[in-house]
Amino acid sequence: MAAKSRHLASPTSEPASVRWMLILVGLAFMALFIVLPVIAVFSEAFRQGLGAYWESLHNADAQSAIRLTLMVAAIAVPLNVVFGVCASWAIAKFEFKGKAFLITLIDLPFSVSPVISGLVYVLLFGSGSILGPWLKSYGIEILFAVPGIVLATIFVTFPFVARELIPLMQDQGSGDEEAALSLGASGWQTFWRVTLPNIRWGLLYGVLLCNARAMGEFGAVAVVSGKIRGQTTTMPLQVEMFYNEYQGTAAFALASLLAMLALVTLVLKTALEWRFGDELAATGRGH
Amino acid sequence: MMRFRQPSVIPGFGLTLGFTIAYFSLIILVPLIALVLRSAGIGWSGFWAAALDPRVLAALRTSFVTALIAAAINVVFGTLIAWVLVRYRFPGRRIFDAMVDLPFALPTAVAGISLTAIYAPNGIIGQLVAPLGWRIAYTPIGITIAMIFIGLPFVVRTIQPILEEVSKEVEEASATLGASRFQTISRVLLPSLTPAILTGFALAFARAVGEYGSVIFIAGNIPFVSEIAPLLIVIRLEEFNYQGAAVIATVMLVISFLMLFVLNLIQAWSRRRYGYGS
């Protein structure tokens, strides 16, 4: 029977023809569903030329949206970094009851629709709630204002840093810290001089992903922002606004900035994986 | 035995766990409780009246059916892409590998307007199918396409690490015992990938059901036809019908927590059976 084929086919691989067909199908699917949309953003943005593109980005609304997005990320990301470091310290360095449950809870925001992530704050601070009117009497606006946008952004980006650091610190164990402590270092010294250098690349990795999502979040922010032009519109919301007003070039020009952010994030993330793969969590791939 | 935590020389347990729990409660727990309380506030009959409203049911059906179809398509092509990326060497492999994560990184609103530009009747692909009388954008097909876009990385990224771990010896053993390549793949490889494939399916499905930004632009948002459940929540909010919004959200949350529960069962089962989780 085996005499039929003249060359010896590898028993653990497929014939070259099958191989190339599978590669072709896989890459074609990716090209169609993943690459094409990114190319379309840029081709639509530059459709009316570089001048129109440049002008769109200097539009006052676009400028204020860019500023607001940067500000929201600058508040939300550091808070989630502090949380991520605290949570992974408590979870990786200690054994306590309910730990597995806590890890599951931290991932919770990933399984909640972004719209619901925004909705919960509307219900908490909206006109029918107890908190909202009470805060308003002190002149504090949460909903349809920047604090609401920050809260919704924190909600959706909540797990990013923690889920990168927890498996990494669990892998590394506590040996280094115990050595530092036994040599007389204080707790803070141990953290800054031993733990932080050990986890820096993993931390950077988590920050990158957290930041990309924070700047790009749409659903949750759309619900709480009230979309007040020039005041509570972040970049993604401004993209929607331009788009609905049939200002295609303006919408895609602003979208192209967000697409560039995504590409830069991806390049840095890949570079980190190639260069420091062994200093990232084993589960560091993916979202 | 009954201690809450085991002793350790490392300091900072109280501080870090305390902050973790306080922050989690403030940002996630209290708001979620507010949601459940608000939807419970209208009473049992009111809750069901709002949840079984025909428009709500239609939106839930649209969301779940399109998400199911998209996740199924993603399982087929995601498995194929993971296979190609792990097993074959070809020029540009690492670039394609990196690009799998694009849907994670690209803001959903950007993906939404871009997909619409491509599949609208005057777009690159919309133009191609328009003469055949087909419409993609502004129909449930458009919704499915957006969901395929955002769900694909979940499938590829869950299967890839498992595929990398499967040792070549198992395949060699299967081949020396006289199995054809097809038999080896279908009887030896696929069963050990099944938990990862199921996990990828569940993740892609869960994400697609809740997806908003990349879907609403291409969906057309016609009530009873192409209106997704998250959009209906937004519409209820704009009508200041907070309770109606809370009810739809609660229904969606319950369903996705059930999904998460099933997912955990699959992973526990695969750990017992194959010695690894995914």
UniProtKB/TrEMBL annotation, chain B:
GO molecular function: ABC-type sulfate transporter activity
Superkingdom, natural source: Bacteria
Cellular localisation: Cell membrane
InterPro entries, per database record: CysT_permease (IPR011865), MetI-like (IPR000515), MetI-like_sf (IPR035906), Sulph_transpt2 (IPR005667)
Known partners and oligomeric status: The complex is composed of two ATP-binding proteins (CysA), two transmembrane proteins (CysT and CysW) and a solute-binding protein (CysP).
Domain ABC transmembrane type-1: 60-264
Protein keywords: Membrane, Sulfate transport, Transmembrane, Transmembrane helix, Transport
Lineage, highest ranks first: Bacteria, Pseudomonadati, Pseudomonadota, Alphaproteobacteria, Hyphomicrobiales
UniProt function note: Part of the ABC transporter complex CysAWTP (TC 3.A.1.6.1) involved in sulfate/thiosulfate import. Probably responsible for the translocation of the substrate across the membrane. Part of the ABC transporter complex (TC 3.A.1.6.1) involved in sulfate/thiosulfate import.
Pfam families: BPD_transp_1
Record's GO cellular component terms: plasma membrane
Topology relative to the membrane: Multi-pass membrane protein
Transmembrane segments: 12-37, 64-86, 98-120, 132-156, 188-209, 215-235, 247-269
PANTHER family: SULFATE TRANSPORT SYSTEM PERMEASE PROTEIN, SULFATE TRANSPORT SYSTEM PERMEASE PROTEIN CYST
Protein name according to UniProt: Sulfate transport system permease protein CysT
Family: Belongs to the binding-protein-dependent transport system permease family. CysTW subfamily.
